[in-house]
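This section describes the prediction task in plain terms. A model, or a person checking by hand, is given the sequence of a single protein chain and must write out its three-dimensional structure as a string of tokens. No templates, partner chains or ligands are provided. The sample shown here is typical of the held-out split.
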Amino acid sequence: MGMQEGSSAPVEARRWTRDQYERMVRAGVLTPEDKVELIDGEILQVTPQSAAHAAAVMAVEEALRNAFGPGCAVRVQFPLALTDDSELEPDVAVVPGSWRDFREAHPSTALLVVEVADASIDYDRDRKGCLYARAGIEEYWIVNLVEQRLEVYRDPGKSDAGFAYQQVLHFCAGQHISPLAKPEARINLNDILA
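The expected answer:
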């Protein structure tokens, strides 16, 4: 039985696995110039960075390297293989171990993930926040360049609405924060937000 004239088959988006995505990277189909991430099976283009965004990423990296010290790797815009259908490149991720531990495969979890956001603030709060919570990342920070504050998300869990963080805290310049994974460290937010 054929299709009737004028009818069409439903159109569906192609979903990709992390394995397929990584094979495209290895084969050169996707390159660093493409600036993409795999999110829930979709290959999405990443927004170009402003100078303020780049400076904030460097400030966060420096503050977290000082706070966590040896025994943790602070990775800047490198892949984090969260699930079978998501491989994000957070602005900064702190993972246990050293860079030598990730020669064969990207880390699949992190002690802390940080995104720097301006135009992408809603996307980072909602879609990325949901993915990080679903992956069990205990602490997720958003450096909110629009409102000049640090948004801290803790206690990932599942509710009727899906995965989300149960605790949300807001910090401003002049305040201090201690990461959950390094409670003895005190980070002056002037070092990140100013």
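For orientation: Helices lie at 18-26, 51-68, 121-134, 190-193.
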